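Thread: quick sanity check before group meeting

JM: Hey all, I'm pulling together slides for Thursday and realized we never actually wrote out the predicted structure for the chain we discussed last week. Dropping the sequence here so it's in one place. If anyone has concerns about the input, flag it before I start.
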Amino acid sequence: MERGKTIVLAVSGSLRARSSHTSLLMAMGERMGTDAEFRLYDRLAALPHFNPDHDGDGADVHEAVRDWRKALKESDAVVICTPEYARGVPGSLKNALDWIVSSGELSDKPVAAISASPHPEGGGAALASLIATLRMMNASVPDSRALAIPFFSSGKLGPDGRVADPDIAASLQAAAESLWDAARSAE
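JM (edit): ok, ran it. Output follows.
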C-alpha cells in the first residue's frame, strides 16, 4: 500500500504580512522530505478570544476555532515559529493554544518549536514559555526540535526572503529532519 503525503502544519506566531518568522517556517518546509505536504496556517487573527464558556459541552464553538482544530487534527506534525513579545509568546499565539488545551489536538503529536529574536538569547523566554505550554498539552517536543535563533534580523534572510545564514540553515535542517523522522514513525 502506498503511503500518502505526511502533512506538516506550520504556524507563525507573528501576524505581520511580511513576517521573518513565516519566512523561517517556509525555509523549514523546504527542508522536509519530498513526501511532505507543508501547510501554512495563517488564520490566527480570526480566532476569537478564548472563553471557556464558549467551549465545551453544548457550546456552539466558533467556526474559526473549528477550522483551527481541524487543521491540527489533519496534520501529522506541527512546527511553530514565534517572535518574543514582552519575554513571552504573542497574545494571538497563546490564544490559539488556549483553544486547544482541552480538545487534545496536540496530544502525542510531533512538534517543533522555534523562536527567533534580534537579542542574544534568541527569544529564549518565548521559546521556554511555548515549550512549557506545548508539553503541558502532551505534545512531543524534544530538545532536538526546540530551536532558539539569536541575533536574528532581516539581514539573515536574502532579498527573496530565503535564509541566507548558513548556521540558521543548518539548525533548521536538523530540526526539520527530527520532525520529519518523528512524523513518519508515528504513522
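AS: nice. The chain is about 35% helix and 15% strand. The longest helix spans residues 166-186.
JM: adding both to the slides.
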